[in-house]
Amino acid sequence: MSIWNELAPAAFRLEYVDAGGVRTRTLRAGPEGEHRGPAVVFLHGTSGHLEAFTRNIAVHAERYDCHAVDMLGHGYTGKPNRPYEIPDYTEHLLAYLDAVGVERAHIVGESLGGWVGARAAVEHPERVASLQLLCAGGTVANPEVMDRIRTSTKAAVSSDDVELTRKRLRLLMADPVDATEELVEVRHAIYHAPDFVANVDNLLSLQNMEIRRRNLLTPEYLGRITQPTLIIWGRQNPFGEVPEADRMHRAVPGSRLELFEKCGHWPQHEQADRYNPISLEFLAKAAG
């Protein structure tokens, strides 16, 4: 099924907003005016883009004011020339919320997006209503995993060979069928935009051990999260095993953990039919 078919049930728009001086691409959907629901912001992972959530937007937009955002330095969003650390991503997220007039949002963060969401939840609790951590990064510094992310991304960006982009996308999925050719084309185009090529080392800076360690989410830090928190993890996640999710679950007070069988690093995409009802149930309770 095409991305356009997945989005078709919702009235949506792609637009660019100025978020603290950074031109930021966003996909917005949901009721307008007096019928507008609580804001839900979807944040993707390292070297990703907002299309990671096209299987989730339509059903969430029936009730919620949905925002899928290309994060700082990613996708078609602006790329300031400096290494990006978690406070930089968090600052950009808050600037985006300010730009679109959202005082408080439910954050859905996949991988890097979860890392950023957790940081925002602790440092700016008044802006985060609830938190979803989908195979979230940021709790460990595994040299093997970091090297896998760095080398696979650099290889796909440095060569025009679309097979390298296909391999990078398939790395995320338990079933390669979920890395659709349309997604491969979208990612290949992003990876080979001149500003992305020039900026790739900046967005991979968290794969540097020294930088990563000073940005890690420790158990003590996660223990400061007060918002309702849903953790979803794929049992075949190539970037983190189930014990990592268990530790996160134990650290975040009152959190809920859901493990998905036959699932990799994109649970919201690979198993959208399972994820969407769980997310909607969680949001309904969190939003009251």
Number of helices: 13
Structural class: alpha/beta
Shape: globular
CATH architecture title: 3-Layer(aba) Sandwich
Helix content: 40-55%
Domain count: the total is: 1
User: Poorly predicted ranges (pLDDT <50, ≥5 residues)?
Assistant: none
Order of helices and strands: HEEEHEHEHEHHHHHHEHEHH
CATH fold field value: Rossmann fold
How many strand elements?
8
CATH class categorisation: Alpha Beta
Keywords: Hydrolase
Pfam families: Abhydrolase_1 (PF00561)
Organism: Pseudonocardia eucalypti
InterPro entries: AB_hydrolase_1, AB_hydrolase_fold, AB_hydrolase_sf
Can you describe what's shown?
Residues 38-270 form the AB hydrolase-1 domain. GO terms for molecular function: hydrolase activity. It comes from Pseudonocardia eucalypti. Pfam families: Abhydrolase_1. This protein has 288 residues and is α/β, with parallel strands linked by helices. It has a single domain (3-287), classed as Rossmann fold (3-Layer(aba) Sandwich), CATH 3.40.50.1820. The chain is 43% helix and 17% strand. The chain has helices at 3-7, 57-61, 86-99, 112-123, 143-158, 162-170, 181-191, 194-203, 209-215, 219-222, 242-251, 267-270, 272-287, and strands spanning 12-19, 22-29, 39-43, 65-69, 105-110, 128-134, 229-234, 256-260.
